[in-house]
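Run: sequence + adenosine monophosphate -> complex structure.
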Amino acid sequence: MGDCIFCKIANKDVSSKIIYEDDTILVFEDVNPQAPVHVLIIPKQHIPSLNDIDSDAAEIISHIFMKIPSLAEQLGVQDNGYRIVVNCGTDGGQSVGHLHYHLLGGRTLTWPPG
Ligand code: AMP
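>> structure
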């Protein structure tokens, strides 16, 4: 999608610190980390938000979740634990309109969120 920053990252038109990549997903460091480990997992295909997931996206979503444990291991947070966050829409705090999963860890994370 023309103006989408995460599409530009997926297409390598904008640089990022890539952690993992395959045919369908890209994982890169968040530019404004909220924890010692903070990466974003995105589908390369433009899906605007969680609200836009349908059966066509099922394989990608499943692939993302299946990949998370090995990413956590690669990032050194598998044993101590980590958090996956998907912000959706205005109240959910979504600021980039391309579906993304935050993987946060490396410190004890507080709950509930503000
Ligand atoms: P959200 O608020 O859930 O939409 O999360 C968007 C995230 O994208 C924020 O944590 C930003 O810090 C991050 N972000 C925005 N632009 C970039 C970029 N060019 N490279 C890496 N992370 C980015």
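>> summary
The helical segments are 5-10, 58-75, 89-92. The first strand starts at residue 18 and ends at 21.
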